[in-house]
Amino acid sequence: MFGNRMCIIALSAASAIIGSASATAGRLDGNWSMVAETTRGHCGVIAVGLAISGSRISSTGGSFAFYPIRLGGRVSGSGRARMKAIAGPRIAHGSGRFSYLHGSGTWSGRGPSGLCSGVWSANRS
Q1: Which residue, 61, 59, 81, is CA-closest to 72?
Q2: pTM above 0.85, yes or no
Q3: How far apart are the C-alpha atoms of 44 and 118, rounded to whole Å?
Q4: Cβ distance 32 to 125 under 8 Å?
Q5: Per residue in 31-84, pLDDT tens?
Q6: 37 phi, psi to nearest 5 deg
């Protein structure tokens, strides 16, 4: 009897945690406009459209050096994000945090012209 109650309590707690994490991640769902600004290297300013759906980040537009930007990543229920962007032979990794209306973080990448790094910011579209 005691074991069954503990199991029910544990399952109820797990359901509540899972439900709240999904609800938190869902509040970020939608289209975003992101700008990656280079602070070191020669990559310039790069505009990227992105979408968040659940915990997934994907690109909706943007190009760099005539290559379309393919962006993918994950965002946690608390808003922490990790991303990877590919544009032709160039690859960049970024991390940061999203809130309901804004996001920001850092990125670094490598391409034919060498290393670049900088900061990114995003706003809900």
Answers
A1: 59
A2: no
A3: 10
A4: yes
A5: 999 999 999 999 999 999 999 999 999 999 999 999 999 999 999 999 999 999
A6: -110, 130
